[in-house]
Amino acid sequence: METVPRPGKGVPLKKDKLQAKRKKPRRYWEEETAPTAAGASPGPPRKKKKNLELRRQKLKNAHNSKKSWSSKKSQVTKKSREQRRPREQKNLREQKKPGSQQSLSGAQDPFPGPAPVPVQKARKFCRIDKSKKLPHSLPKTQSKLEVAEALEEEISIKAARSELLLAEEPGFLEGDDGEDTAKIRQADIVEAVDIASAAKHFDLNLRQFGPYRLDYSRTGRHMTFAGRRGHVAALDWVTKKLMCEINVMEAVRDIRFLHSEALLAVAQNRWLHIYDNQGIELHCVRRCDRVTRLEFLPFHFLLTTASETGFLTYLDVSVGKIVAALNARAGRLNVMAQNPYNAVIHLGHSNGTVSLWSPSVQEPLAKILCHRGGVQAVAVDSTGTYMATSGLDHQLKVFDLRGTYQPLSARTLPLGAGHLAFSQRGLLAAGMGDVVNIWTGQGKATLPALERPYLTHRLAGPVHGLQFCPFEDVLGVGHSGGITSMLVPGAAEPNFDGLESNPYRSRKQRQEWEVKALLEKVPAELICLNPRALAEVDVISLEQRKKERMERLGYDPEAKAPFQPKPKRKGRSSTGSMVKRKKKVLEQEHRDKVRQSLEEQQKQQKQQKAKPTGVQPSALDRFVR
Amino acid sequence: MQAAKMNALQTIEGLLTLSQQEELVDLPNSYPLSASEDEGDSDGERKHQKLLKAISCLDEKNRWKWTERSEASLQVSEFNMSSEGSGEKLVLSDLLEPVRTSSALAAVKKQLNKVKSKKTMELPLNKEEVKQIHREIAFNKTSQTLSKWDPIVLRNWQAEQLVFPLEKKQPAFVPIELVLSGWKARTPLEQEIFNLLHKNRQPVTDPLLAPMEKAALKAMSLEEAKMHRAELQRARVLQSYYEARAKREKKIKSKMFHRNMKKEKARKALKDFDHLWKVNPTAALDELQKMEKARVMERMSLKHQNSGKWAKSKMVMAKYDLEARQAVQEQLAKNKELTHKLQIISESEEEKRGTKEEESLVPDVLNEVQMCTDGPNPWLLRGCNSDTKESEIQPDPEQQPEPVIPKFPKTEEDERPAAEEEILLKGFGESRSLRERFQLNRDTESVGCQETKDSSTQDILAKLKALNQKLENRHSSKQTVSPAGTVLQVQREECIPEEEESLLLQRPERVQILEELEGLGKEEYFQNKELPRPLLKWKQMKRNPNNQTDSPKGKKKEQMIDLQNLLTTEPPSVKSLAIPTAIEELEDEEKQNLKQMIKEAFSGDDVISDFLKEKREAMKASKPKAVDLMLPGWGKWGGAGLKPSAKKGRRFLIKAPEGPPRKDKDLPNVIVSEKRNIHAAAHQVQVLPYPFTHHQQFERTIQTPIGSSWNTRRAFQKLTTPKVVTKPGHIIKPIKAEDVSCHSSKLGLSVIQSVTAQPTGNKKQKTDKSSVD
């Protein structure tokens, strides 16, 4: 569901910091070009020209250097806040008293009225499905419907107008003519970008405690990782400030942040443990044993665990209760992903199927046969449209989740992808052995084109964990040699919601957010395949109630009263004529019914007839052996 | 004497035959009848006396009911039995009345009449009824007084938000003139500007309106506009009055009135003409010429063919004067000649038209006259002609006495009633015939109606049939078994009853369903066998030519193939720049070996067939089950080794209604659970709120999310505004009539304004007070 854009208004104090941190390398050149901007960071003057060019013509990098790493965000930020403020104020003033000013000065507003909003933008925020035709409604109902529609239009226009506040634009990477972006190495990128961004690329050399799994917090500010041999650590990865580092002295299979960076769940050899950011063990959940994979559903406060015993367990972390423990009946579960759109859990099985689960239903909501071999990895994109799976048959497939569950594209990889991850903007990363491949689509939430990778990177060891960082163009890769933070331009959403997930929030703000989030917690029962279905009337129980009421009363209170002809004057309302009129109406109704049913039948016939014509066997088919 | 009696008898008999319903009070027919009965009696003396008496009775003055009671006699004539006296009531005054009316008794009679006319006082109504009436009146009154609140109630009901205590809405924008009136130019620049403005006669306070515009606005004030409108309205009303009057006058049947009117008009015209003559002689001459021309035109049109003065006088003369008669006839012929319209049409039509015109233009009477010119006096045949027209068989004696008429000693007065009667009778006959015709018409009409109805129903039937045929044609074309001839036959069979047709309609579908079932069964059979895939394919291909027609099966098969394709086809491999080291190290042969190994490893477990099996099971589980009510030993021997007959099995099997199609019907690689999420359903809306009648309508109103995470702040505030807001610390007073009037004036509700008739000043004060509150 499209949410309304919000400016990063969380931390006004840290705005400068925000810019410094959020901006991709390009930004500090820009500040140089715009000397009015406050944050004067020294930059190498030699690249100044090139970058200017870059900015002016976004499409091509005129410079003869191989890589170009640019972020359009900087363009917008160039018109810095000092500039924007006064203009906004002026707008406000103009809007307040347009009439008086205009008439006094005699000057006319060249753009009278509110600013126009493009229809396309506004339509994005419309939720009422007008394609369905409604049954005939009474005038009172009609008025209500009209009010609802008018309100929706007004609201969508408001939302579209507020899109102006989404100042940042995503970054991108473009090669020179005919140059493959996949050939651009991380080192080149790091060389091209500014220091702040370059600092986001790092390697942690941790060869001692085996392959690592990692997780980013929802704000994208914190990272936690755990080595197979018990090494658990959490850090503010941007500043590289370590929060805690412990060894749990037990095999660790997975690690995950809970709703905030203050709590982390660790799937240890026997049980599930929960630590705080000081490394203090808070809980040991013994009902979740031999957990292989962890997922956290942030809006429901549910920690889902998939275990070796084949159980999928939902643990409500706000109340510490197990909501549901479902037996998947498919052996060991070691592939799990969540659908961020509807909070459905996807489990990959060894028989090539992927099953979708909700805590309120004991059986899988759907089962999709994806691969001929076992499923190795599953990932779902942020809009809930695409699901990427890889199997033991060395194939990588992208499925459509919008009801059809058909593969949209498939590729055979030299080695099956063991790990998959989708970024916020729909980039797909796959870890195959010690190589990470990243594919991209045309824009946000589009199908990643699997023909040629966008980026590739070779790591020190085989990949064991893969995760994109939210709101940062960074991909974290855990491998046997430690942790690698890769730069992936255009991976993350450039604009964040300051009230929802603010990377720069203070402790107080975090606490406040926590309370609000808890208040807005979504009950676990509401998880279903189509969350929009919750806004529909439960027709079955409605019918049931109607039926019961009819039984109770002995008649149908909502039944249409039989037609009673009005008495007419001047002797025309004889009993005979009344009966005749009544009969006429009845017959008309009957006729309508018959006509309708006939039309339906015809339609069906047509459909049935139309279908076989689609696959007419050709004469040459007989030679096919 | 006897002869006279006979004569009288004859005439009276004739009359009686003509009008038996008529009560001829004037003619004491009882007497002559009795006379005729007593013809053979001996005592003629007494008869004679009676006759005399009767004749004296004929006198107008002492005309009283003459009834006779005859003694019992051997021969009772049916004519003697008169029922004249039996129906009459005895009136009290008759008893009182002496033979000669005495003036003294008149007062008593009057009193009596008065007493009779006075009605008795009615009983007072029942107490309950009185109460009920009172209640009704009270109810009507109160409902009327309450109805003035209806618009307010409606408005409040529709209002997005109500803030209590209700406030008068202040006009949002104060006119700019008011704001500027208190403002003065102070700085030198301002003063200079204003000087400039004054010099150039530019608007200062109200910049929107230049003096010219103001003048234009002033040109028509509200009062003027109102007056103009009222004038227009009056004119319209007058016109309508005039029209109505003209219509009414035109409808007046009185000839006298029209004559008078015409005369008046003529007089007026003359007067005008005189006046014109005095004022403008040339124009008057023109006018005169015009009038003359009109007169000539009128004469030429021969409007008065036989109703003019001259014609009438000639007609009177025509009785005796042959020349006059000829003149009249000539005139009529001339008229006919002149009025005959020249038309160029086909002959046959012309003939018809001509005769018709003759009929229409010339009065019937004249035609009759021309027809029987051989008769001695056509003008006097007038009366009977209609009869000839009415009844074909004219009694001969009627025509025969005609020549005797001149001899017949009858005064005109005697003749007239007869003629009148004739006319009456004719009218009656006509009306009867008309009625008959009408009835016939109605019958025919009703028949026609039925026919039309029939035709309409037949139309519908025909349509239905056509549709059916179309459908059937389709079926037949689909099946391709039935030759075209049969189709045609079916088309020809239009007399099949509807039910049969509906059956016909249903049949092909059923067949299809059966086919589907068969197909499914076959498929299941196939799949259960779990043959090696190539073999299975081959078998299917072999099967296909046998039944190409069953499309669903074909589709299913297609699906299966699709599923196979889906998983077995090798998608193009990615050419990655960086190949994982594990593979890089291997050489080509080893790679191939690896692939082979993988293939071998997965050859054992057939993922696809497993999945299909699972899906079938799921489908079976979700299908509604049929209930088998058969008892094995019932009506037949049962036990081990005995199988109950299939017929019985079918008979006692209650098939469950087929549920909605599965969501994964067309998705070969997916099993979608059909189980209802009851936990989520508990959170769904289960009752439709009031104005909605269908769930889709309500769903449309709740589709927009109202949360702040989906909306801008303003939108969120707007979406979540409370319906009713009460200001804390304020007294919420009940709504008053004054307030209502204040609101209504804004809305333009005249009803409430009239109800709250209060001086405006008073109102203002009150509103001020409330605002102060």
Structure notes:
The complex is a heterodimer of chains A (625) and B (773). The model of chain A is unreliable at 7-102 (pLDDT under 50). Chain A has 13 helices and 30 strands. Chain A has a four-stranded antiparallel sheet with strand order 3-30-29-28. A four-stranded antiparallel sheet of chain A has the order 4-5-6-7, with no helix packed on it. In chain A, strands 8-9-10-11 form a four-stranded antiparallel sheet, with no helix packed on it. Chain A is of the alpha+beta class. Chain A has a domain at 181-513: 7 Propeller (Methylamine Dehydrogenase, Chain H). Chain B is mainly α and 773 residues long. Helices cover 63% and strands 2% of the residues of chain B. In chain B, strands 1-5 form a two-stranded parallel sheet. A two-stranded antiparallel sheet of chain B has the order 2-3. In chain B, helix 18 runs parallel beside helix 20 and helix 20 (412-479) runs parallel beside helix 22. The N and C termini of chain B lie far apart (116 Å). At the A-B interface, helix 6, helix 8, strand 19, strand 22 and strand 23 of A face helix 20, helix 24, helix 25, helix 27 and strand 4 of B. Strand 19 of chain A pairs antiparallel with strand 4 of chain B, so a sheet runs across the interface. Chain A: Residues 57-78 have a biased composition (Basic residues). Chain A: Residues 79-97, 549-559, 585-603 have a biased composition (Basic and acidic residues). Chain A: Keywords: Nucleus, Phosphoprotein, Repeat, WD repeat. Chain A: WD repeats lie at residues 368-402. Chain A: It is found in: Nucleus, Nucleolus.
